[in-house]
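Lab notebook page, bench 4
Experiment: in silico fold of construct C2
Operator: M.H.
Input chain length: 503 residues
Purpose: comparison with the prior construct
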Amino acid sequence: MTQREEGPDVGRLERRLGKCMYELATESRLVRAGLKDTSEMSAIIERYADLYEPEVVRFAEQAYRSAADTDACERRRRLYLALLDFAMERPIAALRDALAERLLRRFVEVDGESINYYALQPRIAKEPDADKRDRLFDALGHAQAEANPARQEILATTLSELCRFGYPDYVGYCSEVKQLDYNRFAENLRPLDQLTSETYFRSYGALVERTTGRQWPGLRQCHGWYVSSLSQHDAAFTPDRLIESAWATLRDLGIDPDALTNIHIDAEDRDKKNPRASCYDADAPREVHLLVRPRGGWSDYSSFFHELGHALHFGLTSPRLPFAYRRLAVSNGLTETYAYLFQSLVRNDGWMTDYLGIAPDIAQEVGRQAWLLDLALLRRYLGKIKYELQLYQDPLNANRNSSAYVSILGQITGFSYPAEAYMDDVDPWLYVADYLRAWFGEAQLNGYLTSHYGNRWYKDPQAGRLLRELWRSGVKMDAEAMLSELGCRPFDIGPLAQRYEGL
């Protein structure tokens, strides 16, 4: 497309936005990797303030609404919404930085030990002493309660900015951006709750009681974190095999990990490095970062393979795609689908035997327990979307919303949730629905790969070829469009519900 067809300033806006996104991703990565003590996201946003002036946002909107063809219209729509998002983020960024820095410096004292706020949840997940888990959880709750006024201020400022740009309704704005009717989507999820309830409360409940030695339902949420770590199987998932097993899998798929020089692996062990694996799309596909701090254990493998799925998607995107189709996703449902696909390998008993040498009978039991954990997480997210849609009906009513959080999450998960977490447990812009879309997507994509390439599709280069072809399209499609191209029916709960049968 020529510059005249694209518009005189659209290309410049895309290039400058790309630079801003690169700097923000780099800043976030450096802090998470333990290479910087303080976040300066707000300073970066201010350096690019020319991008977010009202007249620039209005120009981008006019360019989108006056586009001559469907493709240009979609690319300009994404540019407009990205600029709008940053324009609204500008007064919020300093508030986020202040909260992040405050929590980085927040330590709690438990049994004479000083523990950083961000280390509390992973510490609880690995703590074998149930009474100490409770004490750690109490400390976390106190810190969450202290942070709630700051989170309320961030939300209030977000709502004010939405109104300033003509969007009085938070859910309505998310619907326009991500092209999803959230209330209808939530209604379509109700049968999934019913179809999985019996298996969950019977089989997952037995796993909880066996692992914790306590009666359930009614246990505090922190004990669910411990169950989800599958610590009893840690010896089979050694840290030295983590990256090795991933690279061996890629080679069997016909993907040479040594050729992925654009995907940078940071496996260094630093005191301030976040222990959970993460992926940063700094400038797909030119520069992608995968952070990992190998500790070993099933949960370590699970989080790493999840982030590996993101990294492969971003790193194998075609560089020839327009900026909008490389960097500006409609939602994160698509990339989360690929992340869930690779994470599912760590639940696959055949994969565990093939790459980690785990005995088949043990691998089958680990796999069964891991799928029960997946079901538990799915039901938690079914509760989260129900709660968050209620939250945004009256978002600043703290008493109402904290009570709703405890009630809704407790009913669907069987765990006792703390009221103090009602703000901390919410991701911006209804990301909860992106995850749920990915649950549908992964079940269908995994089913497609299995039906065409067998239960060990991860060893078939033809399956790898298909995945590479899908990844080449970047974020041009959403998850449902990708699935439709494979002949799958979007939002089909059947494949997802069926995988939990017989557990």
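Observations: The chain is about 65% helix and 5% strand. The mean pLDDT is 95.
Next step: discuss at group meeting.
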